[in-house]
Amino acid sequence: MWRFVAASVAGTSHIAAGKPCQDFCLAGEHISPSGQPLLYMFVADGAGSASHGGDGAELATQVLKEFVVRRHSSLGFALNEGLAIDCLQAVQERIADFAGWQELTVRDCACTLLGVFSSPEGTLVFQIGDGGVVVDFGRGLEAASVPMTGEYANMTNFVTDEDADSILLTKFFLEKAYQIALFSDGVQRLALKMATHTPHEPFFAPFFKTLAT
């Protein structure tokens, strides 16, 4: 029922420094045993200050896909804040296991995380860190989430933070989204009008037009 694309590429600063891309993303649709469709979309960006941030980001997206397919296949699946918290905890547990195997700290695998689930019953958005989510429920584009900033410039929050549970942003909408875009900080200044935290529509218009065809 959904058309979706997902891609990650190294930014100019990474290319100049000879560093690999540390962003990972996944998008897909899962049909429950009762025939209910669920769109899932995830974006994770490894912290530049973390030695294995890219590994953390890759793990985060993979864990969330496995988690939501398993949860959506079970009885009692619900789109609510509790689901977002469970997603975060699943990511934290997998990163902690990976860090232990590799003799790293969890901070070495720090990453941001954005996620969206959408179905006929509604749309759930969750985020920790920078980047953003733009949605269209039939009223035009609106920012469902905007970049989180830390105490100082160029700081943000990560899934590995000790207080990540309390920082996690969740929003639930009683509508199915018609258009959705998730993005990391690499394009957030192109995708958003930062002063007003509203979508920059000329950035999205050609993207959604091409995708619709």
Compact summary:
The chain contains six helices and ten strands, in the order H-E-E-H-H-E-E-E-E-H-E-E-H-E-E-H. The protein is an alpha+beta fold. Strand 3 (about 110-120) and strand 4 (about 120-130) form a beta hairpin.
Could you explain how this protein is built, in words?
The protein has 213 residues and is of the alpha+beta class. The protein is 31% helix and 28% strand. The protein has helices at residues 12-17, 53-72, 81-101, 164-167, 188-191, 201-212; strands spanning 23-31, 37-46, 111-119, 122-128, 132-136, 141-145, 169-173, 179-183, 192-193, 198-199. The protein has a five-stranded antiparallel beta sheet. A three-stranded antiparallel beta sheet has the order 6-5-8, covered by helices on one side. β9 (192-193) and β10 (198-199) form a beta hairpin. The longest helix has 21 residues, at 81-101. The two termini are 14 Å apart.
Helicity, as a percent range: 25-40%
Radius of gyration using CA atoms only: 17 Å
Please mark out the parts with pLDDT under 50 across 5 or more consecutive residues, or reply none.
Answer: none
Biggest β-sheet strands, sense, barrel: 5 strands, antiparallel
Mean pLDDT: 93
- Number of distinct beta strands: 10
Please state roughly what percent of the residues sit in beta strands, choosing from under 5%, 5-15%, 15-25%, 25-35%, 35-45% or over 45%.
25-35%
Gap from first CA to last CA: 14 Å
Number of helices: 6
Order of helices and strands: HEEHHEEEEHEEHEEH
Helices and strands: which structural class? alpha+beta
Indicate the overall shape: globular
Strand order of the largest sheet: 1-2-3-4-7
